[in-house]
Amino acid sequence: MNTELLLKQLFPKQLDYQINGYVIKGNAETEAGPVRILGTVNAAPINQEIAIELAGEILQLIQQQNKTPVVFIVDTQGQDLSRADELLCLNRTFAHLASCVDLLRRSGHANLAIIFGQAVSGGFLSYGLMANEVYALSDSQVKVMDLNAMARVTKIPVEKLKDLSQSSAIFAPGVENFYKMGAINAIWPDLESDWISQALLNQQQQLESYITDQRRVVGQQRQGRQLCNSVIEKVANA
């Protein structure tokens, strides 16, 4: 996937960015004003270093108190599967990164995530899925884990999981299923230069409405999470 071409299509007015390893940082001008670009590219395996760098960039932006909108670029194969990162508690570092994105949201920054290539597991959950809105290109690969890995973890035969994935979005990888579950706001078949501006302008008019996450409600409306809300209500009222 040509990151440079995609970025030029999304930000045709003014664009300045740098890619260092797997991390992308930059600035762009849109109809909604200046935006900050931050994220990962080239199917990044997100490790301690990358997660802490992203978190630090987010905290610096909040400290500037300019409420600059943020566009998160998501292209990750998930967490780095190294013993060193596990021993250093990568799960806690991911939680810190997710908390920083949540603080960004609550500090009044309009923000959205765009899935360029892959969006897998904890790498996606820690920052991309935490954004106010998530958009994906139609050829994106989105999943928590593939069905073979899920079978090993759950001890459910992979054939059974394949059958379940035909009728239940929560068992099935793929951008369409994440859309049904409400995790993705829209799937973009191609790129229009004004889509980001429209999304950010819309957010800026109703930022407070994004503080409460409504994706489980949307997932039920799209028939991707049919039991979620009823289970939550029973637990809350128990």
Please give a structural write-up.
- The longest helix has 17 residues, at 48-64.
- Strands 1, 2, 3, 4, 5, 6, 7, 8 and 9 form a nine-stranded mixed β-sheet that branches.
- The chain has a single domain, classed as 2-enoyl-CoA Hydratase, Chain A, domain 1 (Alpha-Beta Complex), CATH 3.90.226.
- The chain starts with a helix and ends with a helix.
- The mean pLDDT is 91.
- It has 238 residues and is of the alpha/beta class.
- It contains eleven helices and nine strands.
- Strand 6, helix 5 and strand 7 form a beta-alpha-beta unit.
- The chain is globular and about 50 Å long.
- The protein has helices at residues 3-10, 48-64, 83-87, 90-106, 121-125, 147-154, 158-167, 175-180, 195-205, 215-221, 228-236; strands at residues 14-20, 23-30, 33-40, 44-46, 70-79, 111-120, 133-137, 141-143, 186-188.
- It holds the Pfam family MdcE.
CATH class: Alpha Beta
Average pLDDT over all residues: 91
Q: Spell out the helices and strands N to C.
A: HEEEEHEHHEHEEHHHEHHH
CATH 2nd-level architecture: Alpha-Beta Complex
Annotated CATH topology: 2-enoyl-CoA Hydratase, Chain A, domain 1
Main sheet overview: 9 strands, mixed
Instruction: Give the count of helical stretches.
Output: 11
**Roughly what percent helix?**
40-55%
What is the number of domains? 1
Number of strands: 9
Mass-distribution shape: globular
Name of the CATH homologous superfamily: 2-enoyl-CoA Hydratase, Chain A, domain 1
Distance between the termini: 48 Å
Beta content comes to 15-25%
What structural class is derived from the secondary structure elements? alpha/beta
Low-confidence parts: none
Please give the radius of gyration in angstroms: 18 Å
Pfam family, one: MdcE
Protein name: Malonate decarboxylase gamma subunit
GO biological process, one term: carbohydrate metabolic process
InterPro entries: ClpP/crotonase-like_dom_sf, Malonate_gamma
